[in-house]
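Handout, section 4.2: multi-component inputs.
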Amino acid sequence: MEIQTKLKMEDLPLKKSIGKVVVLLSGGIDSTTLVYYMRDRGYKVYPISFYYGQKHKKELDFADLTCQKLNLSFKAFNINILRELAPSALTRKDIEVPKGIYNEETMKITVVPNRNMVFLALATAYAIGLGIREVAYAAHSGDHAIYADCRPAFIEAMRKTIELCDDSKVSLSTPFTLLDKSEIIKIGFNLGVDYSLTWSCYEGKELACGKCGTCRERLEAFEKLGKIDPIKYEG
Amino acid sequence: MEIQTKLKMEDLPLKKSIGKVVVLLSGGIDSTTLVYYMRDRGYKVYPISFYYGQKHKKELDFADLTCQKLNLSFKAFNINILRELAPSALTRKDIEVPKGIYNEETMKITVVPNRNMVFLALATAYAIGLGIREVAYAAHSGDHAIYADCRPAFIEAMRKTIELCDDSKVSLSTPFTLLDKSEIIKIGFNLGVDYSLTWSCYEGKELACGKCGTCRERLEAFEKLGKIDPIKYEG
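Output:
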């Protein structure tokens, strides 16, 4: 019997992982970083986005730009009925996006009811259809107080539900659960994320407003790292 | 102090429950019976249906007929992207609906990946938007082998996830989990369900085919009870 003592080049895996993963990509900082992160782990990444009537639909154009840059096939699906089903300041013209600090009281109106479950359910259907066994999304610690569907307890329950929904046993990855936005950006800088190709502002204007909760949160996260946010703001 | 010894009529609740519930209604036997059942429990019922590209979309017309009969406001939402996201014999013209007995091998192709999680996620969003704290669907024991997303383990995981997705703590009711179709029909007869206003056949033709898995299952369930299925079949 011949014992193999030395690996040849062709025996080595070319990548750290040969897995595929469907990643929920909004075009914002967290999910864009997640795409780079999973790619760095060796995954073939299938980003998926949703148009749900959000005022800041230009985030999808930015998601597309990142996918073009990384040569990933980008899928954006229309789930506009979410606006009809459940009202929110993010989707309804008659409800104003709140300005100022990102606190519980002012930001509650930006909750799109059950958005994450809807997106994850659809992303899982997409994964099953493609024969992919992993779905990832960029839940992080900054959202826990306001958004019930970003909290660890929800994520754990969702993980189990996704595993049970189909015999192919799809797994849910949420590597950023315990990180805050500045820690995510730090990872992103190490991975070469181009943050000029991201969009966070809840207003869908030409330039980011710099005043809404998500703009403030973004600016603070860059500031905390002593880095410059590369996008342009109003005024 | 005056002690109230006798309740007056106006002190009595008019209904067994004054709750509201969103019910997933497909227009088939199980979910139609569930609408009657929840109504009988005293709930104000908000039926919700989805068009997801199913060949048997006429089931939605039947759902509508039941709602008209019971004077319920019926909402049908278009979630056609499910067909694009994940292929199935139920939604794709190029995949034939299997004929004959409802066994695991032949029926696997009728699985619409993750359909129940998608529907329940959207129904929950709808409930949250309306301030309703309960969602019901008609999972039953007959579907367990083929459809992972009808099994008790999935339902329990989903129940927990729904409870955690929003601070309003929506609960999921699945009163038929342990019943088979003939037991559901038995309940339905006691509640006066008009089964001529239901549709089950996976083919979307003028008359039910009588040959596909769901037609066979339906016919067997009526036969087991010694009852006549009031709908018309081909041939």
